[in-house]
Write a structure and sequence with these properties.
Structural class: mainly alpha
Largest sheet: none
Number of strands: 0
Length: about 120
């Protein structure tokens, strides 16, 4: 166990050295590659305009997302109507998905309480 810890520590040190040595070049390369997305003269007015564009673009996408949601609901309804034809694999995937959602809910509750393990979830 201690040898694994030392190996992991040495790997972390190597990764840190690599990032320190090549991080600045990667940053410059990334900015150069994506400079057409950067606003040249960032003013308060331009930032306000961009935030409004983002907000209203997302607001305009709600009907499309709502339609996709109702298609998914209809698909689940059809699956439920024909549940006798459901395979074990499909039921297992659905059960795992439900378990994953519950675990994320529990993890969110624990994080929201400041990483304290109190309450009735244990």
């Amino acid at each position: 166990m201690a040898s694994k810890l030392l190996q992991m520590k040495s790997k972390a040190v190597q990764a840190s050295c690599f990032a320190a040595k090549h991080g600045n070049a990667y940053y410059k390369q990334l900015l150069e590659k994506n400079k057409h997305y950067v606003q040249e003269h960032p003013t308060i007015e331009k930032c306000d305009l961009l935030s409004k564009q983002l907000f209203y673009t997302r607001l305009a996408s709600i009907p499309v997302r709502q339609e996709a949601f109702w298609k998914e609901v209809d698909y689940v309804k059809q699956l439920w109507k024909h549940r006798q034809d459901l395979k074990v694999e499909d039921a297992g995937i659905a059960a795992l998905f439900g378990l994953e959602c519950f675990c994320w809910f529990c993890a969110g509750e624990i994080v929201g309480r400041g990483f304290t393990f109190t309450g009735y979830y244990l």
